[in-house]
Amino acid sequence: MYAHMHTVYTAAMVSAEDIRALRRDKYNDDPDADMALDITRLEKGEPLAYVIGWIPFLGLRINLDSHPLIPRPETEWWTEKLIEHIKEKYGDNEFSFLDLCAGSGATGLAVLKEFPNAHVAFAELMPEHCALICKNIEENGLDMPRASIYESDLFSSLPKEKYDIIATNPPYVPEGRSLDASVKDFEPSEALLSGPDGLSHVRRIAQEAPLYIKKGGELWLECDSEHAETARALFGEDAQLHIDQYGRPRLVVSYY
What we know:
Radius of gyration: 19 Å
Order of helices and strands: HHHHEEHEHEHEEHHEHEE
Shape: globular
Structural class: alpha/beta
CATH architecture of the largest domain: 3-Layer(aba) Sandwich
CATH topology of the largest domain: Rossmann fold
Strand order of the largest sheet: 5-4-3-6-7-9-8
């Protein structure tokens, strides 16, 4: 009786939609699941994806155990565009791919899933997220021998190899920007903040990437919409800026 009353009480504070998603995605729609602790976490502002423990991404189940940055719809949007482009460019041929600032590994995992001839490297600063990437590869039934995972601050600890495509969602939030509490208090600041103008990591990537991209290769970089043109200009006059599904400049594509 108490559990029932508690659920009714908290439903006014946590949306019914979130409670339905929690029951469905964490408890397989078990009507008797005890979700009291989960609802308390939601009441405190913790993101639903962390409470559930995973998030869908282009047909994959992306575990979030180590609390990396939660993959956003914008990232899923351009990753899908990237996959369509790779199909046109490489077809069934082999190619090498680097997911830089990989976090949960969502983008690289999607490429690993879609292309049986892709060799995918993941570069991620935090060791706990590197372990999570390994788990996500295994639990999605992907081909571990075609993957390499490096604990690396951008390119610093990578072998001196070159890739056909580098994709990255680096930190790009200016340090002074006001963020929602659910982001500021729960998501990792090292995956979000990048200097006073949000471009510290982007500048490093623009400078160092040419050493790691093959001739004819490409770099796809998610950027802050407020500084998108500045980010694009860092990669030269041939770099292109693309608008996301919400009508905001979000993606820089640079050619080498």
